[in-house]
Design goal:
The model has no long low-confidence stretch (mean pLDDT 75). A two-stranded parallel ribbon has the order 1-2. The chain has one domain. The protein is elongated and about 50 Å long. Helix content is 34%, strand content 18%. By secondary structure, the protein is an alpha+beta fold.
Length: 71
């Protein structure tokens, strides 16, 4: 991924852009220098969090939950 002479980049994702940010980092780790994700909360109820609904062991596991799997 190199466009217009850009070799490395910083990325800011807002709202749904956070999914794009996660995807870009997962696909192009060597090209992304810094990432800022804003408004990136997962909408869960308190009982879901208390029951451990979003417990992950690594970045790959989080990506399978947070990244869209279909259009």
């Amino acid at each position: 991924m190199e466009a217009h002479g850009v070799h490395r980049m910083n990325l800011v994702g807002i709202s749904y852009g956070r999914f794009v940010g996660y995807s870009m980092v997962a696909q192009f780790q060597e090209k992304i220098e810094r990432v800022v994700l804003c408004c990136a909360g997962v909408s869960l109820e308190e009982k879901d969090t208390n029951n451990g609904l979003f417990v992950v062991s690594n970045l790959d596991e989080a990506a399978t939950i947070l990244l869209p799997q279909t259009p």
